[in-house]
Amino acid sequence: AQSVTQLGSHVSVSEGALVLLRCNYSSSVPPYLFWYVQYPNQGLQLLLKYTSAATLVKGINGFEAEFKKSETSFHLTKPSAHMSDAAEYFCAVSSNTGNQFYFGTGTSLTVIP
Amino acid sequence: KAGVTQTPRYLIKTRGQQVTLSCSPISGHRSVSWYQQTPGQGLQFLFEYFSETQRNKGNFPGRFSGRQFSNSRSEMNVSTLELGDSALYLCASSLLTSVGNTEAFFGQGTRLTVV
């Protein structure tokens, strides 16, 4: 069975500081991993996805994530936080049977001016 | 390219009523899945449809049902509404080029409030 765990339901960073959002996965097979962002009263927008082509994945808005099999992690980072980055972030793993995603509980990012 | 369209955006219903939500996927996408999002339970998978067939189903009671039409549009229905059904219902559309290796494009959701 596949699942993801997000450590830290709330993260606060200062504007310009490093953003680090943590995600660990559990999967019996090589996983497909995703990070999504959700703004208030909106759907989810894909930031990036890992599909085994490269361990360091670059996404939109300056975000990137590194797949580390030894640590079963897929943490999301951004070198310099922007006020517009304040949102809810979800890590997800897809099933091997179709278009079904297992989401983490989400991390709310606050950016302090 | 038009995105995923969910209608209506907001709904208020009374306990015991039923409701139907609609989702139009991105053109060419044949897979549609539904999720319920609540503050307490987070994002939970309801079901997935592919080419008019339900392929996967989450752990929800039979009051929750869905269907997909030949043009890939999907509807989900909730009968005998309960207060706990109040949630944001999200629809996701996917091209699904190979199993698992896909990305889901989400609609803006339908906010259902049961009073």
Describe the SSE topology.
The complex is a heterodimer of chains A (113) and B (115).
Chain A: E1 3-7, E2 10-14, E3 19-26, E4 33-38, E5 44-50, E6 56-58, E7 64-68, E8 73-78, E9 87-94, E10 101-103, E11 107-112
Chain B: E1 5-7, E2 10-13, E3 19-24, E4 31-38, E5 42-50, E6 53-57, E7 64-68, E8 74-78, E9 87-94, E10 105-106, E11 110-114
Parallel strand pairs in B: 2-11
Antiparallel strand pairs in B: 1-3, 3-8, 4-5, 4-9, 5-6, 7-8, 9-10, 9-11
Distance between the termini of chain A: 41 Å
Mean pLDDT over the full residue set of chain B: 92
Q: Name the chain pair whose interface involves the most residues.
A: A-B, 25 and 29 residues
Helix content of chain A: under 10%
Query: Main β-sheet of chain B: number of strands, strand sense, barrel status?
Result: 7 strands, mixed
Cα end-to-end separation of chain B: 37 Å
Record field, number of beta strands of chain A = 11
- Could you tell me the radius of gyration of chain A in angstroms? 13 Å
Biggest sheet of chain A, in brief? 6 strands, mixed
Radius of gyration of chain B: 13 Å
Taken as a percent bin, the fraction of beta residues of chain A is over 45%
Q: What would you call the shape of chain A?
A: globular
Low-confidence stretches of chain A: none
Helix segment count of chain B? 0
Helix content of chain B: under 10%
Helix tally of chain A equals: 0
**SSE ordering of chain B:** EEEEEEEEEEE
| SSE succession of chain A | EEEEEEEEEEE
How does the helix and strand content of chain A classify structurally?
A: mainly beta
The shape of chain B, in one word, is: globular
